[in-house]
Each structure stands twice: as structure tokens, then as C-alpha cells.
Design goal:
The protein has 330 residues and is mostly helical. It is 65% helix and 0% strand. It is built from twelve helices and no strands. The longest helix has 39 residues. The model has no long low-confidence stretch (mean pLDDT 78).
Length: 330
Amino acid sequence: WLPALLLSLWQNLVVPKTFYALAIFERRHFALSDIDVRISSWMFIWVFINVFLGTLLGSLALLELGTLLRDPGKIVYSIGSAIPRAGNFFVNYVLLRAFLVPFRLFWPHMQVLCYILQSWIRNGGLLWCGCGGGKNGRPPTCLFCLRTRRARMLGWAPKSVRYGREMGMLLMIFLICTVYATAIPLLAIMALGFFVFTWIQWRYQLLYVYMRSYESGGCELWPHVALRLVWILAIYQTFTSCLLLANRQWYAAILLWLIVPGYLYRFHLRCNEYYRKPAISLPLSIAARLPPANVRRSVYVAPALRKGANGWTEECGKVWQGWGSQKYTA
């Protein structure tokens, strides 16, 4: 459980902030939705190369290095035999993620969890801090125990959804469970439970917890996710063929290589033609048949300038609002 826990902490605390800073520093996109898509694409590449291939090739190097040095031509068979051996780590990781999903209903983001832990310390849960949790008649003075009304409001304030990070993590679970569904069928059942509870959690939090930082109508992120799903199916076909070759199933592996790549490519072209292109540029013939829109003028007014608003805040204009992210970089 320790490697899976360390990986989860690394991908929650370090990787999202790093990719966010890089996307801002890149200065390639102007729309907030495009920056989120950029972060999601980096998250997928990170997941595939560092987590998936890194774990698989690490297991391959530890167990099959001698065989590969003697006969490099057996790399396909070695990859097929290394897939089940590396499955233990992914089983533990998916179990950990599935176990933590219900708890996210109680702490939807890390700042709420930090506030709960700091309140516990202040109430005497831990006494190793410098001020003793504010006990023995001494006021709390350390960083863990000193909590103000402003700090509480900032900790519990609604945040925007980090779409780039969240979609990258969901695609990671889908990639792992899809590729290992053949070698470890139990992983597919765990993935089903994970996505069922995740759907319940995100449906509740999107309605009642998180706020929107921009509006794109799904025209940017959904085609990006659909393309990655096609890539995941291609990766699944590749590693399943290696697994079949390792088990001497020649005809099944050759049949997969002959049928699946061409079918996936045609499916991608069809989805791009029927869904992606009309979303980018709507044909005039379709636009002419649409009913006229009746939009209120207040929609085109910035929320901070509407009647009853308190004005601009330091979080306005950020992709991820409320997460302590920077708005500009050097």
C-alpha cells in the first residue's frame, strides 16, 4: 500500500501544480478551457510514460533483464509475461483510489482536509506542536494551531474544478483497468465500482460543492477525452497482443493486429467528421434552421460587474480558482 499511497500523494500535491505553472509559463493558449485541456494532455502523457510504462518496464527489467541481454528478440514475449507481474501494484492503487472516493464527500478538496487536521491538532489531538494545541492556558501560536475566521472561510470556500487534473486521473484508472482487464479480470470489477462511486461523488459535488470558473459548453474537453479513449483502446490492443504471444496464441494476436488498428482509425475519423468538426465550425445550413436565441443582456456582463456583486477578487481570471494557483508567471 505504501507505493500506491506515495504515488497518490505525488499526483495530488506536486504534479498538478507543476503542470499548471508550465501551462501558464508556456503562454500558448488564451482561453481558460484551452489551458485545462493542455494540462489534461500532459497528465495523460505523464500517466502513460511514468506510471504505466515505468511500472511495467521496471518489472520487466528486474525479472527479465538477463533474458533480454541474451536474446533481445524476445522483448515481445517478455512484455507479455511482465504484464501480470506488474499487476499487483496497479491492483493496490485502484483499491486505494476506490476506497478514498466515498471520503471525498466529506472533504471535497485538500484545503478542507487540512483544516480538519489542524482543528484536530488545536483541540488536543496531537500535543507535539510548539504551543501544545492551545492547552494549559497558553494561546495557540504555531502554524498548525493558529486558526482565524478568515482562514476557516478560505479553507471551506467553494473551489473551481480542476478539469485538467481530474480528467487525467480518471483516464489513468481507465487505462490501467482496460489494459489489465485480460490478465487480471478482478481489476475490471474494481474499476466498475470505482467509476460508479466516482459518478455519484462528482454528480453531487458539481451540483452543490464546486463552482465554475469558465464556460466552454464541453466543446474543448470532451473531444480531447474521446481521442484519449481511442488511444487507450489502441494501447490495450497492443499489450493484449503481447500477452497472447507470450502464451503462444499466435492466431489470436495476428487477428488483433489485422482488425483492431484499422477499425479504431476509421472510428476516430468518423467521430472527428460527425462531432468534432461541427463543434468547431457550424455549417450555415444547420445554423439557418436553428431557432433564434433569446439571451438576456446580463449574460454578456462579467459576474463581478453585475448588480449585487462585490467586485473583482484575486481569483478572477484563473483557470483553477481557490487552489492558491498563480495567475501569471515570469
